[in-house]
Specification:
The protein is α+β, with helices and mostly antiparallel strands and 182 residues long. The protein folds into two domains: 74 residues, RimP-like superfamily, N-terminal (GMP Synthetase, Chain A, domain 3, 2-Layer Sandwich), CATH 3.30.300.70; 75 residues, SH3 type barrels (Roll). It has five helices and eight strands, in the order αββαβαβββββαα. A five-stranded antiparallel sheet has the order 7-6-5-4-8. Strands 1-2-3 form a three-stranded mixed sheet, covered by helices on one side. Strand 2, helix 2 and strand 3 form a beta-alpha-beta unit. The chain is elongated, with a radius of gyration of 19 Å. The N and C termini lie far apart (49 Å).
């Protein structure tokens, strides 16, 4: 069925430069031509969280670019979104962006660790794990040993020492730029 909608590849090629200028990269594009109106979802990720204002601005510029490139597409619904907390951490950049967040990590030996993501390295990342009632240690995890990793939703504020070991300067998750090398 010809919809006039651009393909996933065309959307990425068309929007990539605009998203890059804003500091984000396109993780995925999902096109649902069966929806009424058809839906184009652009999932973007970056080193800073995709807030509502930025998503709206990117959506406006993306719509203008899409309308110009594919006027035959007609009416469609465009959504610009972040990957969400349930997206698995699979690449070094995902762990870098999750710094300061709590994650559950399943290793290739099937052991499961829960801890706070710390600094990333060329071949892995640090995970701050609880070793006692109020003690933590930093464990270096090679990416090659990660079978699965998912950010965990937290309802309580983390301990200050735990954040310090993860290289985060405040409970809002802001990275200590001195330690991060920025």
């Amino acid at each position: 069925m010809a919809t006039g909608l651009p393909s996933q590849t065309q959307v990425i090629e068309l929007l990539d430069a605009e998203f890059t200028r804003a500091g984000y990269e396109i993780d995925d594009v999902v096109i649902d031509a069966r929806a009424r109106p058809p839906r184009i979802t652009v999932i973007a990720d970056g080193d800073t969280a995709l807030d509502l204002d930025t998503a709206a601005a990117l959506s406006r510029s993306a719509a203008a670019l899409l309308d110009e490139a594919a006027p035959a597409a007609g009416a469609y619904h465009l959504e610009v979104s972040s990957p969400g907390v349930d997206r698995p951490l699979t690449a070094a950049k995902h762990f870098r962006r999750a710094r300061g967040r709590k994650a559950e990590v399943t290793l290739s030996d099937h052991s499961v660790l829960t801890g706070r993501v710390g600094a990333t390295h060329a071949d892995g990342f640090d995970l701050v794990v609880k070793t006692g009632k109020a003690d933590w240690s930093v464990r270096r995890i090679p990416l090659a040993q990660v079978q699965q990793a998912i950010v965990q939703i937290e309802f309580a504020a983390p301990a200050r020492r735990e954040l310090e070991l993860a290289g985060v300067s405040d409970p809002a998750g802001n990275v200590d730029t001195e330690e991060a090398g920025a």
